[in-house]
Amino acid sequence: MLLDFSGNLTRTAHSLGYASNFFDIQARSLLDGKLSVPRGSLGIEGFVERGQEYMYFGPFPALLRIPVMLTTDEFDGRLTLVSMALAFAVYALMATKLIWLVRDVVREGVRVTRIEAAAMSVLIAATLGGTSLTFNASLPWVYHEVYAWSVALITGSLYWLVRLLQQQSIRSTSWFVAFTVCTVLTRATGGWAMCLGAAMAGLWLYLGRSGADRRREGLMLVGFAAAALSIGALVNWMKFRHPFLFPLEDQVWTRFSPQRREALAVNGGSITGPQFFLTSLVNYFRPDGIRFVEYFPWITLPADPARAYGGAFIDQSYRTGSITAFMPLHFLATCVATVTLVRPQPREVRKLRIPFAASILVTAGVMAYGYLAYRYTCEFVPALVLGAAIGVPTTVGWLDRRSKVLRRGVLAMGVALAAFAIAANMLTGYATAAMTAGGSSLNSYLELQRRLTPAAERPAVIYASNLPDNGATDSLLIVGDCESLYVNSGDFDREWRPVEHRALVIDVSFSPKFSEGTVNLVDVGTDRSIRLETTDDGFARVVIVDKGEPYAGPYVEMAPGQHLDVGVGVKGEFGYGEVSSEPGGFVGYVRAFSLDGDGIAQPETPVPAFTGASMTTDFGIVATGQQGLALPLCRSIARSAGLDTSS
């Protein structure tokens, strides 16, 4: 999923690389001895404090980049995928070790049977490929990289916490502290949870529950937890003058988004709090938090963005899959673990209550957050991994006393649930990666969809002369005579995603005695245009105007009777149209979108600035509008749907 079935080790989530370079920017600033980053480098994600700009993400992933950046700047902005791959390697190692360690605690002294070996293999496969981390891997940018590392580090912390609770060891304590500090510097809420877990473990030891000889170790563990928490608080204070909170009113996005400003006003200046618990509970645990469709990829996220419940006023929401639907094996096994741990158990098994409670506390951040997205379910992965590591061997122990038919039946169900979780997260991730990247990735995805499920695609194709305000999720929209092709994302944010646009060409012919003059050739929205300027001595140039600011291409000498072709080709993944002329060459880029009242980018199509087929000016030129080359995918989809777009 990280490679998106390609060989590109420097792939970014978006074609422009936006948000895939934030940690690289932070690392460069750290090398200069600063926590602040260059103004404007983080776009809408920046926080402006005391005249400086900061990122709210912790610095640990940035610190990992420094060894590379000390030697070269060749890979600046292209290290996210490699970083996420390293995080997954750490996760795979620590999750596997945790699963087997917990199994030995739950089934102490019991030999591993064939049925248990098979069950544990299925669990490990589901843990490595059947969680939302697989979906998370589809987008190599900062929003997902931070979860790749936080889940890996929390899983490592849980492993070493279980180890040190089972047996006194300086090595286990040292590794636990190291993993916890790194967690605090990656995802603060997860780090706080592990610090609380350390404090609970320290109190357990200090009270002599594991023997009087470990009371001193308990005090040290509490001290380490306080130190780790203090490190994170210090970093946050240096940025925002608060030990824990981010001043959302100072984020650049807040200036653009009326929804964010209203959410802050309604919720007392914050978008966290217990008022969001019910909303998160319903959306992240609803059994129907998944969608099955007849067309590729067959399994996808719910059609509509997550809804608020209980009167909560949320900031933003996206189409959000649920834990119960996308990770059923882990969810069921964690339910078994919960029942197991609340019942009387041997002392060694009771010790698992502390790391299990800490893993549940990790989820507190998203459960009380007024922003919903499927990536946030990664917060639940450590708890689900630890819960399943308890629940699966417990279930195997129960099955040991049952018939062979029942044992095989339960194992088969586990295999089916694991395979489903892997497929669901991979297919959903593949579709999300294409939708986010746009351009050739989205084009290839829709072409694959057309080839694999041509018949099922028919009802999802609609035709319109203009871009409608809304539509059904996953529907394909053909505008005009295959002038543009769009796909509906289903999200409030950029609902219609451009797939491909037919280039617009304006053919300009010059009379033998053309003179000085200026004329608009193309309009884009209400505040951008492309115009032609001519001189009395036989020269012409193309000028891009954006909000009254001109950007001119070079002057080209035009002979009487000669033609000048002005082309505008919109790149959907960039949101800009490339303007060029022949003769003359490249001129520049014109913005092909505008921000609506909610600060959301809406696509806009370049159109001729004149009505009718052509326009004649009083200074001796004639402009004729033409369409560029036909769009092959759009034509193919139209034919499959039986649409005649030429009418």
Query: Which sequence of strands runs across the widest sheet?
Result: 19-18-17-11-24-23
Rg on CA atoms, Å:
29 Å
Give the overall shape: elongated
Strand composition percent: 15-25%
Major beta sheet, specifics?
6 strands, antiparallel
Give me the number of helical elements: 22
Low-confidence stretches: none
Distance separating the two termini: 42 Å
* Category from helices, strands and their pairing: alpha+beta
What average pLDDT do the residues reach?
A: 93
**How many strands?**
24
Which SSEs are present, and which pair or pack?
Elements lengths: L21 H10 L15 E3 L2 E3 L5 H10 L10 H27 L7 H16 L2 H5 L5 H25 L3 H15 L3 H19 L8 H26 L11 H5 L1 H9 L10 H9 L5 E2 L6 E2 L15 E2 L5 H4 L1 H15 L4 H4 L2 H9 L2 H4 L3 E2 L8 H19 L4 H34 L1 H14 L1 H4 L3 E4 L11 E4 L4 E5 L7 E6 L2 E7 L6 E8 L3 E7 L4 E8 L2 E4 L3 E2 L5 E9 L4 E7 L2 E7 L1 E3 L5 E3 L3 E2 L5 E3 L4 E7 L4 H10 L6
Parallel strand pairs: 5-6, 7-8
Antiparallel strand pairs: 1-2, 3-4, 8-9, 9-10, 11-17, 11-24, 12-13, 12-22, 13-14, 14-15, 14-16, 17-18, 18-19, 20-21, 23-24
Helix pairs in contact: 1-2, 3-4, 3-6, 3-18, 4-18, 4-19, 6-7, 6-8, 6-16, 6-18, 7-8, 7-9, 8-9, 8-16, 14-18, 16-18, 19-20
Descriptive account of the structure:
This protein is of the alpha+beta class and 647 residues long. The protein contains 22 helices and 24 strands. Strands 19-18-17-11-24-23 form a 6-stranded antiparallel beta sheet, with no helix packed on it. Strands 12, 13, 14, 15, 16 and 22 form a 6-stranded antiparallel beta sheet that branches. Strand 18 (576-582) and strand 19 (585-591) form a beta hairpin. Helix 3 (80-106) runs parallel beside helix 18 and helix 8 (188-206) runs antiparallel to helix 9 (215-240).
